[in-house]
Write a structure and sequence with these properties.
alpha/beta, Rossmann fold, 7-stranded parallel beta sheet, two-stranded parallel sheet, 13 helices, about 45% helix, globular, binds nicotinamide-adenine-dinucleotide, binds 2'deoxy-thymidine-5'-diphospho-alpha-D-glucose
Length: about 350
């Protein structure tokens, strides 16, 4: 028995692979293109571990996927690979359409061919789990209830539109062909190995470097934060107990405005790595808002709790402290990730804001 994971060198995928192999000996075949967001350093601890096979490749490459399926005969696929950053999708949506839509289509088609040829028992047990986002539901007003699985799709950015399209493909492959799929729509993750284009790692790294902390607009946009290993445990739970064809919303029951997140990080950094120049709060800078910026996301995670018994293990207080401590303890990872390509992105996104 083995599973194929796509995008397992990215932030959530690498945490998932590490957690998976901590919990079981079932081998993982990890297919990742190693875009700017893929980082093999995240998987350093698995070097020479025979349970982990890394394959550099593209989910749009049908021949490669066919070959992996025939060779490894997985009992499940967990699909993380995606272009994942909203700001990048605004600067250049093309890669998002290709990887998120065409890539998911290619994976579904290859999986369908493989699955249809399985023996009855293996066919019934097989799962394709699609990792998606709460952003497909659009934005909420302050008084709106949280997103439920029954909410209409209303994606607002090129990123969320491409993820919404991929969710629809996954749904259709179940409805039409009977492929045993499950989908999770999760809120904002944070934790170790988070690429520093995203809010939390960007703020930690900028603060430590004495650079400004760029708050888009008024900073009152709300997100629902979940510690990454809780997302991984939710996916493991869905894989083990989820019903084919079902969608599960995953969230942390932790809605917070961005400005409060930044103040929390500042409080922790002032305690754990104080600056001689005084509180990091001096670095807060309000910059031009993100075009089309969604005001509020919030997840109603009652279905996965009711049906599968999953709840997050971390509170925001425990998770965010662990995260700041992780970044402080992994300065080499932090140093290595800030390559020329990363600096180019920082210039592109922030120079004219
Ligand atoms: P990430 O950007 O950190 O990692 C994406 C990974 O996919 C990288 O390793 C990259 O190299 C790989 N990849 C990209 N294009 C590829 C291709 N064509 N073929 C093979 N590999 C490719 O993303 P993440 O934050 O870890 O997100 C993982 C998944 O979870 C995505 O599907 C995302 O939409 C979803 N998600 C993310 C969050 C979040 O807060 N980060 C929340 C909910 C859902
Ligand atoms: O909700 C789930 C989604 O969360 C995932 O699907 C995406 O892959 C993931 O990137 C994340 O999307 P966001 O756009 O919410 O995350 P990001 O970290 O980019 O931004 C979080 C909030 O912080 C958002 O309101 C924009 C704001 N922000 C972000 C950056 C990078 C700032 O104010 N300043 C910044 O410099």
């Amino acid at each position: 028995m083995s599973i194929i994971v796509t995008g397992g060198a990215g932030f959530i995928g690498s945490n998932f692979v590490l957690e998976w192999l901590r919990a079981s000996d079932e081998p993982v075949i990890n297919l990742d293109k190693l875009t700017y967001a893929g980082n093999l350093e995240n998987l350093d601890s698995l070097q020479n571990d025979p349970r982990h096979t890394f394959v550099r490749g593209d989910i749009c490459d049908r021949a490669l996927i066919d070959q992996l399926l025939v060779t490894h005969k997985p009992r499940a696929i967990v699909h993380f690979a995606a272009e994942s950053h909203v700001d990048r999708s605004i600067h250049g949506p093309g890669d998002f359409m290709r990887t998120n839509i065409e890539g998911t289509f290619t994976l579904l088609e290859a999986t369908r061919g493989y699955w249809q040829a399985l023996e009855a028992d293996a066919k019934a047990a097989f799962r394709f789990h699609h990792v998606s986002t709460d952003e497909v539901y659009g934005t909420l007003k302050p008084e709106d209830p949280q997103f439920a699985e029954t909410n209409a799709y209303a994606p607002n950015s090129p990123y969320s539109a491409s993820k919404a399209a991929s969710d629809h493909l996954v749904r259709a492959w179940h409805h039409t062909y009977g492929l045993p799929v499950t989908t999770s729509n999760c809120s904002n993750n944070y934790g170790p190995y988070h690429f520093p284009e995203k809010l939390i790692p960007l703020m930690i790294m900028n603060a430590l470097a004495g650079k400004s902390l760029p708050i888009y607009g008024d900073g009152m946009q709300v997100r629902d934060w979940l510690y990454v290993t809780d997302h991984c445990s939710a996916i493991r739970t869905i894989l083990a107990k989820g019903r084919p064809g079902e969608v599960y919303n995953v969230g942390g029951w932790n809605e917070m405005p961005n400005i409060d997140i930044v103040h929390t990080l500042i409080r922790l950094l002032d305690e754990l790595a104080p600056s001689k120049e005084g509180s990091y709060a001096r670095l807060i800078t309000h910059v031009t808002d993100r075009p089309g910026h969604d005001r509020r996301y919030a997840i109603d995670a009652r279905k996965i709790e009711r049906e599968l018994g999953w709840r997050p293990a971390e509170t925001f207080e425990t998770g965010i402290r662990k995260t700041v401590e992780w970044y402080l303890a992994h300065q080499e990872w932090v140093h290595n990730i800030q390559t020329g390509a990363y600096q180019e992105w920082v210039n592109k996104n922030y120079a004219s804001r």
